[in-house]
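Extended Data, panel c. Modelled sequence:
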Amino acid sequence: MSKPQEPQRPLFPFGNPFRALSPKGSRLPQSLVNTLNDFEESLAGRLKSLEPKVAGDVLSLSWLELAMRSLCDTHYGIKNLISTLDLPVCDWEEKWVDVYLDISVKLLDICIIFSSELSRLNQGRLFVQCGLHNLESHSPKQCDRARSFLGGWRKQTTSRNPKIDSCCSLLDGLMASLDLPKVKNSAKGKVLMRAMYGVKVQTIFVCSVFHAALSGSTRKLVEINVADSFPWAASFSNLRTSVNDGVRSCLASGRTITCKELEVVDANVMKLYPMIQDGVDAGEDVCFNETVAQASKSLETLSQALELLTICVDGFFQIVLSGRDALLCNLRADSKASHQKVRANVGRLAI
């Protein structure tokens, strides 16, 4: 007996974004088409620039910084697009506002989680820094202290931040938001929703790679399929394939420390630790001194990478927070103006 055929999967598992954007018989004014094209072409360029030249480079703090900077630029871009559209908040449909506020609070929570993990990694970096500092004196007592600090690094790298797991439900919520609200009788609204779709796709993708890099798990890497009608679809598809394949390949090798800068520091610490354990004469052993120098150099690279990435994550947090605050302030102002208008009308009727 033949098996019944499975129903064909929809092209857009989270809803068709074009149903809201291009209803039958509608045409956008050319000025709005130009505004949208400029935004989408810029998005395509940013996505293309994120493609790693080497597959393994994606699991590095430097690539994550590049991705977060690109994401900040995209969110600045949507902010400028909204200004160009000159679409008053009072004209925003309630469902648009609800979707925006829901997305923004999830992004703020994700930023807090990422910042927490970066702070934890920085604490581990301080263990190594203190350990190397104590080795400068070459005294047995200081070597014992150095061994204790390097042991702290080893414990830190083998532990896990439970907050990272909280990202999973947040990412699921962001994926669900890809289903665009329907837009009726608003050309500017159609442009806004289409542009917002691109913002959400890049945001979800970057956050999913962040989660993979910081957790060492690929279970939340996203496979969003974007329709060819979007000018940035090819750039995103190429980026998604190269990055996701690179992440899966690296993590499949069994790496316990995912980010490249951390891995280099750990390799030097693992080489240095037994030397201290065996009581090496630090003043005479050439191999020991070379290892200390390599550890110091790799630690400096890690320090810079952590600092820059932390600044980028904090910057993205501020962009999302300021946009959310601006929308809420405008909503309150519109509500107050409407209330005053109603009171004025009632006053005129009473005369």
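Residues 17-310 form one domain. This feature is highlighted in the accompanying rendering.
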